[in-house]
Structures
1.
Amino acid sequence: MSKYSLIKVKYMIKKDLVIIGGGPAGLCAAKMVAEANQSCMLIDRNQILGGQLIKQTHMFFGSEKQYAKTRGIDIAEKLVEDVKKYSDLIDIWEDTTVVGLYQDKVVTVLKNERYVKIQAKAIIIATGASEKVLAFENNDLPGIYGAGAVQTLMNVYGVKPGHKIVMVGSGNIGLIVSYQLMQAGVNVLSIIEASPKIGGYKVHASKVRRLGVNIETSCTIKKAIGHENVKKIETIKLDENWKEIEGTEKEYEVDAVCIAVGLTPLTNLLSMIGCQMKYVSELGGLVPIINENHETSIENIYVCGDASGIEEASSAIVEGYLAGLHACKKLGKFHPKNDELMNEYHQQLTNLRNGPFGEKIRIGLKKQGVCKDVS
Amino acid sequence: MRIKEHPILNFKEERKVIHFTFNNCPVTGYEGDTIASALHALGIKKLSESMNLKRPRGFYCAIGNCSSCRMIVDGEPNVKTCVTLLKEGMDVKVQSNKGEIYD
């Protein structure tokens, strides 16, 4: 008999508001809620709060309102510090995994190997995203990692993923992680990009180019070769119709491959509770349909950050603030500066989504049903 | 595989050594490592085998999403080793089936 079946908690914990996920979105939601004098429970499956910010050693772009020019690791520290100031109002449950979410707003969690039930009135889901995979021969060989995994391994645990690596994907994550690999002393042989154009910001691309890393566009990975570890990869050029051009295969001797082909919202809990979902490729895949208050098709179930569609950490911060304000307002607790802040944050989101790099997000959000905060 | 010098982060501090076993071989990691990061630092990338074809598998996401790092830890199968902190005396084994729970 397993040890799990022996321990059960019979009673139900009652909470007005439960926030699931302690990354930028969840932390910022909790802060707003506490400022409005509303209590909440903040649940995170990791031992430390901060989500994926804890591995971002680079400085953020954008507006200083969302901590631009600050390293992600320092933003995490700041956001966690803000939340811990409200220990009387925010009940933090770290190292706790939500295993079930039900329509009567019961949240079930696994904490210290105990199964605990929580009855909430409102829930904010800020579960973030997971990395996409890419289909190619032997893509399951050890040594082939998601870009975020490589970042975690290097920047959190201080371990190099390998000595010679090829980066697949030239979006901002691919470019930034390539640079961070070099900072860790790893040899980045090449960055390959299937589309004819580099995906990320020019400033990041220039930075790696200056260090002598070639970015090969219209090129993809065809297969990985190796027995228990990846030893070699074969790349191939693509024509304007994304078809492989025979005879353009090239081999690289590597001991690791990094896949940076984007993220997809982590929406398992939203699907479980029965929120209406829609496939929006511009937002990374299956996303919940939401109104302009960040509320899903189920009343009092809110979503913010990457879980509602892939954007930047800066947008997740602002969405978190907004979801927090909306959720506690509906529970009857008004933030002393509610109206002022709402306007301010909606404006900030509109600004963040402006410009050519925000176009994809603007199209995606319109498909998702959000017409506010997009110009 | 450990990073010795880094322009932003500092990994130089002396950390406590943690002893554990991998497939019954005594090995070491550091305090603060996850099981997967400690194994990776030792050059061990294969953590599990696929259920049917027994293909070698390592971790993919390192944040507990993909389940590709599941191993048998102290007799308990399906432990996500990429998010489980390493502890003194742990018995870590490669997993090659769905996992069975023993007494």
2.
Amino acid sequence: MNMLESSVNQAAGAAAGAKPYLQIVDVVKKFGDNTVVDHINLNIARNEIFALLGSSGCGKSTLLRMLAGMETPSSGRIILDGEDITHLAPYERPINMMFQSYALFPHMSVAQNIAFGLKQDGLPRGEIAERVERMLELVQMKKYASRKPFQLSGGQQQRVALARSLAKRPKLLLLDEPLGALDKKLRQQTQLELVNMIEQVGVTCIMVTHDQEEAMTMAGRIGIMSDGQLLQVASPGEIYERPNCRFTAEFIGETNLFGGHVVEDEPDYVRIQSAELPRPVHIGHGITGTLGMPVWLSLRPERVGVSRQQPVGDGNWAAGTVHDIAYLGGFSIFHVRLPTGKVVKASVPATRWREEAAPTWDEPVFVSWADNDAVVLTQ
Amino acid sequence: MNNANNLSVFGKLSLGAGFAFLYLPIVVLVVYSFNASKLVTVWAGFSTHWYGELFRDEAVLSSLWLSLKIAFLASTMSVVLGTIAGLVLARFGPFRGKSLFAGMITAPMVMPEVITGLSMLLLFVQMQQWFGHPAERGVLTIWVGHVTLCMAYVTVVIRARLVEMDRSVEEAAMDLGARPLKIFFLITLPIIAPAIASGFLLAFTLSLDDLVITAFLSGPGSTTLPQLIFSRVRLGLNPEINALATITVLAVAVLVVSANRIMVRAERRRARLAAAAA
């Protein structure tokens, strides 16, 4: 919980900072009648790594392209470091982007690729050489300086693309699906490497991804996008533990969702009755809502315990039978079918079954959770 | 690849028939270029006499030179115009009259050459009456006619390359501070260079052997090689033309084989380096 609180504070601090570094003010993008980006407001602090997370077609890439200047907003403004850049051409913006396909210039060597942007700025030769050298060092590609892009592996191309977009020391770095073109194993290893390099340079960074693991590993804050709208902006921990709507809860990680309504509404606790659960769910804190109001409950599988003994107390547990078990080594996912027909997923660590044997198929068990484990979603 | 020895008897026969169909006429042509006789069809012993005759024939040499000149100028111009047209069609989104423009550019490919030649002739005659220019038909009018034809092919080749090219490469250049014109010369042009080269070669060969359009648009003193050969055929051939054809075949063969060699070598080198990188 400590980590969670500190990241909440950090996020709050970023949002409440005296003057945000990048301001996206009420930006809308329409293609014909189709609204792709729908009134987005977002502030980014200096040196923050921010991830826009959403499934394909949610408008995240269009938003990124508007920041790069490849698309012009239908309305709204984009302000970077006090300067309104909404209508600047891409080649006039102090922003550089790393493309999903890397978009390396195929007819130029690695060093020439990195030097390209510096040459456009008309820097003296000596300085270009020196900066290219430093970038090659940063991404550890020094010995490949004279190679052509097609002679490099995917991971090496990705590092060259990063070096090229950092060489001009942009005020803002944009990453479009930065690791999307790499295979899974290489991706995990590269995620932290990439963050280290970005932090080493100290650049404000916005990335777009559909991979929640990538967003959670790399970014300090995440914005969940769906249908052109920003649904929630928060730290990875908060987004996972305290989703503010049904979409976020389902989109990030696995969860058990129960529909229900408030049956007891007190300042320090609420009770929620769901048709899918045999007894009311007790929530250990008050919510902003009214009696009888329909809500959703989100219960993460790792919060659900599985036991053979009936849990004490009058709420937050249910009897059922083991319907399915997915053994995943370190933990197993138990699918427990309740008498109501609802299947509850419980992620149980292997260490849980030291004293007794793990339940098996069709065995009657109880699922239970603590007072604050279920998250009440009012949207 | 399957070994050729695996072919059945029927396979071998059809392969032989196919090769004979394709290459027998050329073999006959080459053989008869060494004919001592004055008549193409009557064999009278081996001789290189007609090769000597060819190189002393001023008419052949000057028309060959003219054909090469026109082919070079026409293919250069069609590459310039074809690149611009390909760029407009591939990059400038939908605009009013785009399909009309695309249709007009590629029309000479499907239109009978007789029609293209005739309509251009009528245009030039009309222009001469109205503003006295072009004063007469000759190299200039042939050049214009050939550019119209060749440009259609070049545009198709270059447009196809531009469409399959990854646009984000151009966007990356823009993102790094290059303006559109600079992007074209520093990024787009080098990437589509192979397509431009093959477009140029295609245009060159089209122009070099064009007879129909040339026939409509040529004037006195502008006889291209195909025209000369064609007119001599009517007067009765002699093995001199066979000698000319043999030299042409040889030149084409050398060019094709060496171009192929270079490409294969580059491809091998590429594969080796790519393998080393992986």
